[in-house]
What we know:
InterPro entries: AAA+_ATPase, ABC_SmlMolc_Importer, ABC_transporter-like_ATP-bd, ABC_transporter-like_CS, ABC_transpr_FbpC, Mo/tungstate-bd_C_term_dom, P-loop_NTPase, Transp-assoc_OB_typ2
CATH class of the largest domain: Alpha Beta
Pfam family, one: TOBE_2
GO biological process, one term: quaternary ammonium group transport
Bound molecules: adenosine-5'-triphosphate, magnesium ion
Organism: Paragemmobacter kunshanensis
Number of helices: 8
CATH superfamily of the largest domain: P-loop containing nucleotide triphosphate hydrolases
Oligomer: single chain
Strand content: 25-35%
Helix content: 10-25%
Protein name: ABC transporter ATP-binding protein
Amino acid sequence: MPDPSPPRLEICNLTRAFGGRPVVDDVSLSVAAGQVTCLLGPSGCGKSTTLRMIAGVEQPDAGIIRIDGQPVCGDGPTRPPEARSVGLMFQDFALFPHLTVAQNVAFGLPRDRALQARRVEELLERVNLTGYGPKHPHQLSGGEQQRVALARALAPRPRVMLMDEPFSGLDNRLRDGIRDATLDLLKEEGTAVLLVTHEPDEAMRMADEIALMRGGRIVQRGAPYNIYNAPVDKAAAAFFSDINVIRGTSRGALTDTPFGAFLTPGHADGAEVEIVIRPQHLKIDFDRGGRGPNPTAQDGTPARGVIQRARYLGRESLVDFRMEHDGSILTASVPGVFLPKPGTALWLMIRRDRCFVFPVSR
Ligand SMILES: Nc1ncnc2c1ncn2[C@@H]1O[C@H](COP(=O)(O)OP(=O)(O)OP(=O)(O)O)[C@@H](O)[C@H]1O
Ligand SMILES: [Mg+2]
């Protein structure tokens, strides 16, 4: 008796090496209908290779791929790409230049003219291109072409949609709108989506779940909130923002620093630890006319630093401090309305509830 509701897409222990070097190493994940999972990681970590194996254009060395619970690779005969009910959208989403928009969208549909016309019209309306059917791709802007490509990929109602950096060719202003519209459409269609990106912002914006990949392996999976607020290690934290790192030695589950003691439970006595803080969780305070800073219990002990550099980034300003106690540089983010002057001495405090503690990574 098969599971009544298997995940739409499931991959188990997928592995692929090139020239003896594992590029995808024991990767497992699943995506439910109507869900978006983002495979996020730096260039070369194996994202596209994973996607290509699911599409069926690359063969794994080991592992199983199931769609709706049915194996399409491993655990039985391998199904060719066209028999997997998988839609593809890549960065160079080349439309067929000699076909009209309508013919492009109808490309993967059964040869029933009335049915084709209905589906094409419905999809062009959904991607806001009603009336564009007779045009040719070269008459469209990049964003319009992108929407046609999306309509084409969705036309045969694929069970699974695989997208490899599909928005990276678009300029910034277009991108946000097209991302949101794409997401709405994919959700309406109930497709399971695996989206590859190396941009954390894109993953945070699009994903129900992020699978963080590094060196061919998935190092962490979770909702964007959890991945951002409970990173599994220093590199996972650093992938999403600049970070500050303070080293110390854990003694009796406490680590002393110039910012006071931090709880470091679960670290052996004498173990070296790294306390990792995102710039927005460094709090800045003033001298208050000689009375000194005014920390709360959450903030711990203030330490003084002198501003080296301040960069205005619009929504926020990034401020680099050289700390008086050891000359190290710490970066704080402040709302963009402030742009403090280099040379100013200020106090810094660290939010206890917002720092991460990791064993020293070598
Ligand atoms: N056919 C191939 N033959 C040999 N090596 C390959 C092949 N395909 C991919 N690789 C190597 O495998 C590694 C992972 O490639 P992959 O394209 O999966 O990375 P990626 O995570 O998609 O990176 P990017 O973000 O740059 O697109 C790279 O080092 C790449 O050079
Ligand atoms: Mg790639």
